[in-house]
Amino acid sequence: MSRNYDTLKKVIDEIKSKVDIVDFVNSYLSLSKRGKNYTALCPFHAEDTPSFYIFPETQTFHCFGCGAHGDVITFLEKYEQISFLDALKKIATYAGIELDINQKEEPVEITFNEEVSKLYTSNLLNLSSNHKLWQYLKKREINRELVEEFELGFATGQEIQKVIEDNLFDKDIAKNTGLLINGDKEFFYNRLIIPIRNNVGELVGFAGRQIEEETNAPKYLNTPENKFFKKSKILYRYYKNKKFIKENDFVILVEGYFDVISMYKLGFKNVVGILGSAFTKDHALELLKATNKVVTMYDMDESGRKATLSTIDALFAKDFQIAVSKYPAKDPDELTKKHDNKYIAEILKSSYKFHEFIVDYYAEKYDLSNEFALEKYLKEMSRWYKKIEDVGRISYLQGFIENISKKTGKGTEYIQKILERTSALIPESSASSESYSQSKDTVYVEKDIRHDIAKSYLFLWIKYPQYREILKNNFSEEDFSNKLLKEFFTLTSQNSDIGYLLENSSKELSDLIVEVWKIEYFFNPERILSSLKESIRRTKINQQIEELKKKLHETKDLSEKTNITSEIIQLYSKLKTIN
């Protein structure tokens, strides 16, 4: 989200001048004075002896047990587990300060969804415990607490008209959300309702689960996709579970809504669902804001295994660490009903590496004792060998070769030769299942990168982490006039994690990072670096020329005019030597 940093800084400074951290924290914790400072039991980790200190002189806190540190705004953000802006708003109200930060007004469709969702949930909570829906939920081991946590509801088919009348909404709003169809017909009737919020928490759509198994109706219905509801961009419960993903530094990927609920119920709160769609680059980009470690826990059928392979394909090129879990059940929902959290924790712990899954997945499709089938299998392995090599995940290749050797009974040297020779014959385009753009070929994409200073720099920094030190040694902030690169330098001096950059950069810089991050091609980094150096030289010379032209226009002295003209000619000659 783009932020007006100057406005924020003024508000923050004003809040700090008006809100005493001791008084504020004392309303949350029981403080004891110790010399000039104050101490308490830390609210951010379990402890028996106080290690949480408040320092009035600096208006900061620090915990010597867990390392938590910050000011009064950071304290509220961490204590209530809310966003920075929400903490800022709350403390501004506490301090009597009017907060004037331009924020986008919530679309009326989102407001409408919220009102409908409240009514759905109210319906469910007020049903008799003997109602067939509560009997269904009981079988799935879902109680009232989980209903409230996941905002589950019940559609009778009479909610939309009531929300329209009670809140004076235009009927077209209901149609835009997909909740009203074919005139005045409600989209959901006699279904368990699962609200779907996007990755920032806006309620953008709903899923409806059939509760009468014997009917011929579809098991699940989703509200139609619209400008707010895009399944390819949303991870179910990511907005709520992101903090747990960050705390655990890994995410569990599952397929269904009930898989998420069941895993969450057992304490695995760092879980998200892919809404039954394919895992996309947009999903990967969101995850990167929280972690680069992924454990897939998809269904144990062929469809789930294909989804696992597709997810690996989308993630491994992005430098994610990927593990694949195997377990004795059809899906995580069933697994949680058969086993406790300790058993599932062991399942997660023993998950195997993505390249091991690839070897096993294809081995099950071929009779490796058959010479022709073995040849086809090794061709598949060669394709993956090339993909892994092309994206620079070289450290995985040895393990990949060894696993193929074990699976086929062939020596590692033989396997390596076969993979190297066969992969060399695979066309560039067929090695990857996704391309950056159907309308752009590799030549155009590379040219686009090389002729844009900001894009060149970010491409090397993002795609080739080993070049970050080279960039640091060759360039400084003064070499760039580009405002986005200057912002990038400022942010990376604070934190070089891509997730941090995406969440704290302006919209323009964030969009550029996303554009570069999504490029699937891996070009020769030395060529990109050379182009970057040349572009900077060219830019500096052109700036000198413009300055001299201005000087030439201003001077009256003929001798000086001659000297300046000579300098300009020399600079134009230098430009010609740069490719």
Describe this structure in words.
The relative contact order is 0.05. Helix 11 (257-265) packs parallel to helix 14 (332-338) and helix 25 packs antiparallel against helix 26. With 579 residues, the chain is α+β, with helices and mostly antiparallel strands. A 5-stranded antiparallel β-sheet has the order 1-2-3-4-5. It has 28 helices and 16 strands. The protein folds into 5 domains: 1-95, Zinc finger, CHC2-typedomain (DNA Primase, Chain A, Alpha-Beta Complex); 108-222, Alpha-Beta Complex (DNA primase DNAg catalytic core, N-terminal domain); 235-350, Dna Topoisomerase Vi A Subunit, Chain: A, domain 2 (3-Layer(aba) Sandwich); 359-430, no CATH class; 442-564. The two termini are 38 Å apart.
Which SSEs are present, and which pair or pack?
Blueprint: H1 5-18, H2 21-26, E1 32-34, E2 37-40, E3 52-55, E4 60-63, E5 69-70, H3 72-79, H4 84-95, H5 108-125, H6 132-139, H7 144-149, E6 153-155, H8 159-167, H9 171-177, E7 180-181, E8 185-186, E9 191-197, E10 203-210, E11 220-222, H10 238-248, E12 251-254, H11 257-265, E13 271-273, H12 281-288, E14 293-296, H13 302-315, E15 321-324, H14 332-338, H15 341-349, E16 352-353, H16 354-363, H17 371-390, H18 397-408, H19 412-424, H20 428-431, H21 442-450, H22 453-463, H23 468-474, H24 483-492, H25 498-504, H26 507-517, H27 525-554, H28 558-577
Parallel strand pairs: 12-13, 12-14, 14-15
Antiparallel strand pairs: 1-2, 2-3, 3-4, 4-5, 6-9, 7-8, 9-10, 10-11, 15-16
